[in-house]
Model the fold of this input.
Amino acid sequence: MKSIAELQAKAAVLIEALPHIQRFAGETLVVKYGGHAMTDPEAAKSFARDVVLLRSVGIDVVVVHGGGPQIQAALDRLGIPSTREMGHRVTDDATMEVVRMVLVGQVAQEIVTRINQAGGRAIGLSGADGNLLRGRKLLIEGHDIGRVGEVVEVDDTELRLLTGGGFIPVVTPVAVDADGEPLNVNADLGASAVAGHLKARKLLLMTDIEGVRGADGAVISTLDHRDVPRLIDEGVIAGGMIPKLHCATEALAAGVSKVHIVDGRVRHAVLLELFTDAGVGTEVV
Done:
């Protein structure tokens, strides 16, 4: 039997979470889900429970997922070479077939199953469903690298129907162009576009590092988006964090209230960032 002190400690956690729950009830939260949080079984279960809890306290949750490691594994098995330019996978027609097969047919269904097993009601959607994500080719420094795209239009009809009915949409970031052909969209870009269109209260970008680090090496708890260009010029922000912060600033410009960059390797990172006073990542405002 647990002691009174242990039970009071649990009650204290709930009390700390209460004002945050009250603040976000009825709001929309978009989560970009990928990296270690997706490939580690325990982290994946933790994420599913977090999402179900958010939905249970009245928060509309939309998940936009990645799947780079799973795509690479499938390409390797099939003997299809893969290269990258500026962080984007060069996507010819053969690679695009694998991307769709893996993301829509495998990864999305795994996420949906985990959420449903955790007590939620999740439904998978690709960008082609109901013209959810309309896209165009994304040129990298003027180069065409195949069927790589960016989102230019979001039709949120299905998303609003699903969230209004208590469901959790799980969106695969494969857009369609004006000719109905598929485009491989980076999951961060896809999540930013969806969050901006929905005017989400928050966008969470799950990654495999603790957050944005300052010049002293410490994680920056709150980062003003106006400081991002300067920190990039100074070399404080570099590498893969640059495109994430570009996504963050675009989402803020589109009407998202806050963007959070959180470490998906931490169990219950989503709840810790949203429902505790200190948080566990970097919020971009």
